[in-house]
Amino acid sequence: MPQDRPDDAFAWIDAQRERRDRDGLVRRLSPRPADSPLLDLASNDYLGLARHPEVTAAAAGAAHRWGAGSTGSRLVTGSTELHATLERELADFCGFEAALVFSSGYAANLAAVSALSGRDALVVSDAGNHASLIDGCRLSRAEVAVVPHSDPEAVRKALGAAAEEAGDGTGAGPARRRALAVSDAVFSVDGDVAPLAAFATACRAHGAAMVVDEAHGLGVLGEGGRGAVHGAGLAGAPDVVVTATLSKSLGSQGGVVLGPARVIEHLVNTARTFIFDTGLNPAAVAAALASLRLLRREPERAARVRTVAMGLYGRLTAAGLAAVRPDASVVSVRAPSPERAVRWAADCRAAGLMVGCFRPPSVPDGISRLRLTARGDLTEEQIETAVDVIVRTAPTA
């Protein structure tokens, strides 16, 4: 164990590195070439649009016209006509009054949670939420109640307890203080969909708002890929706010918050990750806009993703592997341990297949997994190849 020395301010890092080595939790960067020969079941390019000719041409054209960067924050010089157009079209597609584009989905979640809560508020957060929602809760300075995964009754009880503490003796009326429930629409580890309609009912019983992260739902679920919130009949509701990333189904980069116009206006004036961050670069905005228009024109892309996911799940479970039935595009295949999960992913890579590998602390339940992305552009032959490699390289009991 390295010993701290007065002249070594970072000696503690060595101890943490040794602990990660011992626990099989070391993470390393693996730069990929522009034309990788690997079959990709690890990326979040759900619709296969990141390299679509219309999308890349739009990005290149915007870079030539507007420049490589946005040149400033959105409130100074970082807003272009492209940003405004993308916001209008995203809001219309998803069924909301207004939208606001951020530099990343992470920044969008930090903004939505922190700006819509605050020191005197209560935030009820699902135990399976993404790290960006968790960090938004931490930054909000609100009281945070973490409730069991996908449990609407737990949400209702948490909000009811807060109402009673605030002076509502019956617990049946609206909360006396600001309250917010936050949840992924599709959880990134196992790919399960949240019970959004039941969550909304629990929130409305106590006058609470709801923020839903559609990172893995946009482009995959709902009518023509409009998302799980749209599919649950909650799009455009005055008490519902949606966040999403532009880096998954839309094959670009950036994030967005969608909701009532007054909520978006509030974010423009109060969200720190909007006010103090450089605007999303024009090429990324144009790429996301081109992908959105492609999805409108070809809504069958969303259904194809779900078909591929169920195909992977069915073939892997038929081969005896422990996989979680996917509700959207993520297929989770359980591994015996972190070390075996890493070895499994490495063996897949050596056989020509790139898969994701989720281990603690990235997974809330401590179970290591291979995480597969069902892309809508995969052929039947590629699906068969992927299944064959995963089954052939699976760890023995």
Describe the protein's architecture and organization:
The chain has 397 residues and is of the alpha/beta class. It has 14 helices and 12 strands. It has helices at residues 11-23, 53-66, 81-94, 105-115, 131-140, 152-165, 196-204, 228-231, 261-270, 272-275, 282-297, 300-318, 338-350, 380-393; strands at 39-41, 98-102, 122-126, 143-147, 179-184, 209-213, 240-245, 255-259, 323-324, 330-334, 353-358, 369-373. Helix 2 runs antiparallel to helix 11. The protein is globular, with a radius of gyration of 22 Å. The model is unreliable at 168-175 (pLDDT under 50).
Q: H/E element string?
A: HEHHEHEHEHEHEHEEHHHHEEHEEH
Show unreliable segments.
Answer: 168-175
Major sheet description: 7 strands, mixed
* Helix vs. strand class: alpha/beta
How much strand content do the residues show? Answer: 5-15%
Helical stretch tally: 14
Q: Determine the fraction of residues in helical runs and give it as a percent range.
A: 40-55%
In the sheet with the most strands, the strands line up as: 2-8-7-6-5-3-4
Total DSSP E strands: 12
Give the CA-CA distance, first to last residue: 33 Å
The shape, in one word, is globular
Mean pLDDT: 93
Radius of gyration in whole Å, from Cα?
A: 22 Å
